[in-house]
Amino acid sequence: MDYKFSTASKFCMKCKHVFNELEFFMSALANVAADDSASQTVSEDEKNSNAGLSDYQRVDSCLECWEKDIEKEIKYFSWWQMQKAPKKKLPALKDLEFLWQLFYQARTILENIDTDADIENDKIAEAENFAYVSALGLMRMRQLKLASYENEDESEFLVFTQTGTKNRLKVKDPKINAETLSKLEEKLEKLSAQRFDTQ
Ligand SMILES: [Zn+2]
Question: How many CB atoms are located within 10 Å of the residue 90 CB?
Fold first, then answer.
């Protein structure tokens, strides 16, 4: 699986309200393999742009429609609050939309290691690095809060809680040095710029 990044939908996928610059809205991942109801409101274009997430599909909703989903107890795999970005490109580590996409794509790769026999070790290492730097970025942006450290199989893990939710997210500390970290940050800038090249 390659990393694919899309800009958030320009409008609420439920009521078609067009998001204003800096408006808060919700992004959620619906497991389309398990639940078809969420996918019906998503266009083919949106499906293609999110193809990297395989069984998961991103649904962007305005806060009003989100409240209605909660009342209807619609189940999502994961969700987070977004803010419609200003028109100019932000640095990757300050771009919430980009950081969340990177974080979940890296985690999806790591969660599927057992079932993906062909995955190469350097892909795994890259996904661990991406999950880690995006989590640190999200922590700086107050989306995640560091709750604890855990040791397991001779590795150290950071346990985060997601702000405003009870979600606990465990991220391996890949113990990278400063040089690797700055190379990773360069790579992040390139990945994040992809979204603006394709528009
Ligand atoms: Zn709406």
Answer: 13
**Beta strands per DSSP E along the chain:** 24-31, 56-62, 78-83, 144-152, 155-162, 168-172
pLDDT tens profile 63-75:
999 999 888 888 7
Q: How far is the CA of 73 from the centre of ligand 1 (A)?
A: 16
Instruction: Give the chain's mean pLDDT.
Output: 83
User: For residue 179, what pLDDT is reported?
Assistant: 95
pTM above 0.85, yes or no: no
Q: How far is the CA of 65 from the centre of ligand 1 (A)?
A: 4
- Residue range(s) defining the domain that contains residue 193: 89-199
**Positive or negative CA dihedral for 25, 81, 197, 2?**
negative
Model confidence at 98: pLDDT above 80: yes
Residues 78 and 21 grouped into a single domain? yes
Cα(11) to centroid of ligand 1, in Å? 8
Total domains present in the chain: 2
**49 and 116 co-located in one domain:** no
